[in-house]
């Protein structure tokens, strides 16, 4: 059975996380056009809830770059999802990329929620995002959480996200060494 390889580029968002790196909305648009010319399938254009500039940058990319799917990042909060949807209004193909931290430390100390509440937040966020975009990614930050709980999250959402992801900032999991589900 053949599998398609989908190129999902996060340069327009992740590229700004290094100190001293910031892109204006115009710079994001120039780079998005280059990514489109290279044949990138999905361009994550930014995190609209982060700032007005990021909102404008995602809007400009969504307006001008029509072939690839344009994605916007959102935390599992209604306001973030609504802002992502606003930024993607004019995109020909849109994706909302929702995420939540799943490590015990993040759940207990930062979010102050239990694992069941985390699962419910993802379910609710995916459902809300589906009202705005046909493609929804669920990004579960940190494979450090208990494997059984992390694997429950995508299956708890009905219908499930079109692209469930599990990733950790600044780290990777090697499929041959660690089985997730």
Write the layout of secondary structure elements.
Blueprint (H helix, E strand, L loop, with lengths): L7 E2 L1 H4 L10 H14 L3 E5 L5 H13 L4 E7 L2 H10 L6 E8 L2 H8 L3 H16 L4 E7 L5 H10 L6 E5 L14
Parallel strand pairs: 1-2, 2-3, 3-4, 4-5, 5-6
Helix pairs in contact: 2-3, 3-4, 6-7
Overview of the structural elements:
This protein has 181 residues and is an alpha/beta fold. It has one domain: TIM Barrel, CATH 3.20.20.70. 41% of the residues lie in helices and 19% in strands. The chain contains 7 helices and 6 strands; from the N terminus they run E-H-H-E-H-E-H-E-H-H-E-H-E. A 6-stranded parallel beta sheet has the order 1-2-3-4-5-6. The chain is globular and about 45 Å long. Residues 168-181 have low confidence and may be disordered.
CA-to-CA gap between the ends? Answer: 21 Å
Mean pLDDT: 80
> What's the CATH topology name?
TIM Barrel
Spatial arrangement of strands, main beta sheet: 1-2-3-4-5-6
Number of strands: 6
Helix content: 40-55%
What does the radius of gyration come to? 16 Å
Biggest sheet descriptor = 6 strands, parallel
Shape: globular
Q: In CATH terms, what is the architecture?
A: Alpha-Beta Barrel
The chain-level structural class is: alpha/beta
Number of helices: 7
């Amino acid at each position: 059975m053949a599998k398609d390889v989908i190129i999902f580029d996060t340069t327009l968002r992740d590229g700004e996380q290094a100190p001293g790196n910031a892109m204006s909305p115009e710079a994001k648009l120039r780079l998005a056009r280059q990514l489109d010319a290279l044949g990138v399938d999905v361009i994550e254009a930014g995190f609209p809830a982060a700032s007005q500039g990021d909102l404008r940058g995602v809007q400009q990319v969504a307006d001008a770059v029509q072939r690839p799917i344009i994605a916007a990042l959102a935390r599992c909060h209604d306001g973030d999802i609504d802002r992502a949807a606003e930024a993607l209004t004019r995109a020909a193909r849109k994706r909302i990329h929702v995420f939540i931290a799943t490590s015990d430390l993040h759940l207990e100390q930062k979010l102050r929620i239990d694992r069941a509440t985390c699962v419910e937040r993802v379910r609710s966020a995916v459902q809300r995002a589906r009202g705005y975009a046909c493609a929804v990614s669920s990004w579960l930050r940190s494979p450090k959480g208990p494997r059984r709980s992390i694997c429950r999250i995508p299956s708890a959402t009905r219908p499930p996200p079109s692209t469930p992801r599990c990733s950790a900032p600044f780290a990777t999991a090697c499929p041959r060494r660690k089985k997730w589900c």
